[in-house]
Design brief:
Elements lengths: L8 E7 L24 H8 L4 E2 L8 E6 L3 E12 L4 E6 L5 E5 H9 L6 E11 L2 E9 L1 H4 L5
Antiparallel strand pairs: 1-3, 2-3, 4-5, 4-7, 5-6, 7-8
């Protein structure tokens, strides 16, 4: 199923059963990959609030898909991991939940000169191939500069 940009969704961890190459996302964190690719019917169910399994019995973390509307978060860089098809940069929120970011997004932020160890702003979900990540939509400059702007 193609990504539905009008109804974005992402996999969230219910129970983590594996180590993720240096970073181990906790329950409640966004996952970067799942075995299940939601169909249009699944996306309808996700946005209706129904549970859609992200792994269908795999040996990886148990995940479910949830809607991911733009959300304001303050994220702190936590490290990176390498998978079969992507390098993922991991960020944590104030509650210890992890969020994956693609190299291309980090590259975009670096070229725009807005990368910091701690970033606050409005974030959205994006999908590339079989992987999921976050994207900065709007930076909160006051938070990012510690009120020194």
């Amino acid at each position: 199923m193609a990504w539905d940009k009008d109804r974005p969704y992402a996999p969230f961890i219910l129970e983590n059963n594996h180590w993720n190459g240096g970073v181990t996302p906790t329950a409640g964190s966004m996952d970067s990959w799942t075995l299940n690719v939601p169909s249009k019917h699944d996306i309808d169910r996700i946005w209706a609030g129904e549970t859609v399994d992200g792994n269908k019995g795999s040996g990886h973390s148990r995940t479910v898909f949830r809607p991911f509307k733009d959300v304001e978060l303050t994220l702190t860089y936590a490290g990176f991991s390498k998978g079969r098809s992507a390098v993922i940069f991991w960020w944590t929120d104030e509650d210890g939940r992890y969020y994956p970011m693609f190299c291309a997004e980090l590259d975009r932020l670096m070229k725009d000169g807005i990368v910091s160890k701690v970033m606050s702003g409005v974030w959205s979900a994006e999908k590339r191939s079989a992987n999921y990540g976050i994207r900065l939509e709007k930076l909160n400059w006051r938070e990012a500069t510690d009120g020194k702007s």
